[in-house]
Amino acid sequence: MDDADRALLLARAQARQPDREARKAASRARRKARHSGSRHAFDGAQGEAAPEPPAPRAVPVAGLAAAARVLAPASKPPPRPASPPIRSSLKALARNGVLRAAAAPRSPVEPARQPDPTAHGVTLPPADNAPDTFWNDGLVALLGWVEDHGAALPGLADRWKDQPVGRWVRAQRQRRERLSDAQVTALEALPGWCWDEEAARWEQGFRSLSRWAAEYGHANPPRGAAGVGIARLAQWAAQQRALHRQGRVSDARIARLEALPAWRWDRP
Fold this sequence. Notes:
With 268 residues, this protein is mainly alpha-helical. The chain contains 10 helices and 2 strands. Among the domains are: 72 residues, no CATH class; 62 residues, no CATH class.
C-alpha cells in the first residue's frame, strides 16, 4: 500500500471518530438514566440518597376498633353497666317512704312467753339427764297449749311455737308404762288430760260443742252448714245420737250432753 492509500484510510478513520464518540456518549447517558431510576440507586456524583418510599396510609379509627375487638382475649369480661347515682336512689327511696319507715324507731321485741307450771298445779319432774330435760321441754310446750286452749287435748297435727305437742301427747299415752311416777303425776294434773285416745277425741268434740252452744244458745249445729269446722262438729253430734240409739253412750256422757243448752237426742 502506497502513501496515498494510507492517507485515504486515515482520513476515513478520522471522519468516523466523532460519530463513535457520540454513540458512546449516548450509551453512557442511557445507562445513567436506567441506574438513577432504580430503588437502591445512589448518585455518587452528587452524594445524595435516592428518594424514600411513600409513608403507609393511615388506618381509620373504626378499623382500629374492629381490630382491637378481634385481637382482645376471649376471657375478658364485658364492661359492667354504670350504677345509678346514689343521690337519685336515695331520693326515690325517700319518695316511696322506705327511708322514713326504716328510720322509725322499732318497738322492742317481746320475749317468748314461757308457761308457769305452778299456775296449773304442775311440778316439773327432776331432770337428771338429757332425756329427762327433753321430756320436761315437751311438758312445758303442752302447758303453753293448755293456757291457749284450756285443756291438754291437742290434735295429732297441732303444734305450739313450732313444737309438735300433738305427737308428743300421743307418745306419752303409748309409753305410759315406762314413765316415772313424777311424770305420770304431772300429766294427770293437767286439765282435760286423757290416757285413752278415744276418750281424748270425745273430750275434744264435747269442748267444741260446748263453745258452739255458748255462742249460739243451742247445741244443735246444722248438718248442712258451710265451713269445715261446723260440718265436723255437726257430724260429731250426729255420731253421738247414733251411738245413743245403739246404747253405746255411757251415763256420764249422756248427762254431760243433756246439760248443754237445747240438746236433742231425736234430731235427724
